Amino acid sequence: MVTPALLKVLEGTVDLHCHSGPSPFPRRFDHVEASHDGARIGMRAILCKSHHHNTVMDLLAMRTPLKDAPTPMFGGVALNSEVGGINPSAAAVAINMGGKCIFFPTVSAGQHIAAHSHDDGFPHATGELYEKEVSVFDATGEISEETDLVTRLVADADILMTGGHLDAESMKALFRTASGNGVRRLLIHHPDFIVNAGPADIEEMVGLGAFVEHELSMYHPEVKGPQWPITRLVEWIERVGPEHTVIDSDLGQVGNPLPVDAYILLIGQLLDHGVKEADVRQMICRNTAFLLGLEETN
């Protein structure tokens, strides 16, 4: 149950990591239902993510039911093998149709493939997807022309770009290129899960303007996965600072709690562990709104 005091903290939340459907992975709800779920805590916006396809097209196809839905929904595309990997054409289509995020490889990243080479609870797609590994480098070991072009497209559109599930060295090289090309909105997903970025890696990428994302799914006791103690998240916030941190749900999968229920439980725990209300709102409202292009952080 959400109290009036907690609801005041949560109101205006922007979730940049919602796995609503459709998707080849089993999902608990679709984008319209996610919008209505977000209204329970007065969410300001939701970015829906698929590992396999351009979610902007989903939202355009659902525009009639979304017209009266309470929480604005935004989409983007992940540059996995299903869309041709680091494919500037796929990025351009998403951007030109109103996309707000380009996710670099997630399930096609070598780091992800190595991490999930065994059954560790990560969902499996329906049917064979013939997925291939995707790299940001060319045959010479330099950032590829396609990668460079995608970062320039992101910079021109001034939208969000994430490092996906790339390993730390690949992500640092990508972010250096992106920052040099003028990308302002950069995000590191779950640095201590799959990515395994160390303190020096994080420091370098934050220095390039990146924010560090932590996912409520990894701290929720009902989610199959890490189930880390909330004190671990408190330590991350203290180490990196709320000004460089965002908290998103990474939820929507069948069998897992709804994103809103995770916000209610875990943001309440952060407050109980002494994280200031202003810092919480910095991480779930202000930083996330900036990354989605809704407002500046200052």
Overall description:
- The model has no long low-confidence stretch (mean pLDDT 94).
- The two termini are 32 Å apart.
- This protein is of the alpha/beta class and 298 residues long.
- The chain has a six-stranded parallel β-sheet. It has a three-stranded parallel β-sheet with strand order 1-2-3.
- It contains twelve helices and nine strands.
- Helix content is 39%, strand content 11%.
- α5 runs parallel beside α7.
- It has one domain (4-122, 129-291): Alpha-Beta Barrel (TIM Barrel), CATH 3.20.20.
Layout of secondary structure:
Blueprint lengths: L3 H7 L3 E5 L12 H8 L6 E4 L6 H7 L1 H5 L5 E2 L1 E3 L9 H9 L4 E3 L6 H6 L29 H13 L2 E3 L5 H13 L4 E4 L10 H9 L2 E6 L14 H11 L4 E4 L10 H14 L4 H15 L7
Parallel strand pairs: 1-2, 2-3, 4-5, 5-6, 6-7, 7-8, 8-9
Helix pairs in contact: 5-7
Q: Catalogue the unreliable spans.
A: none
Radius of gyration: 18 Å
- Which superfamily, in CATH terms, is the homologous superfamily? Metal-dependent hydrolases
CATH topology, what is it called? TIM Barrel
Structural class: alpha/beta
Output the helix-strand order: HEHEHHEEHEHHEHEHEHEHH
InterPro entries: DUF6282, Metal_Hydrolase
Could you give a quick summary of the protein structure above?
This protein is an alpha/beta fold and 298 residues long. Helix content is 39%, strand content 11%. The chain has 12 helices and 9 strands.
Can you tag this structure with a few keywords?
single chain, alpha/beta, DUF6282, Metal_Hydrolase, six-stranded parallel beta sheet, three-stranded parallel beta sheet, TIM Barrel, globular, 298 residues
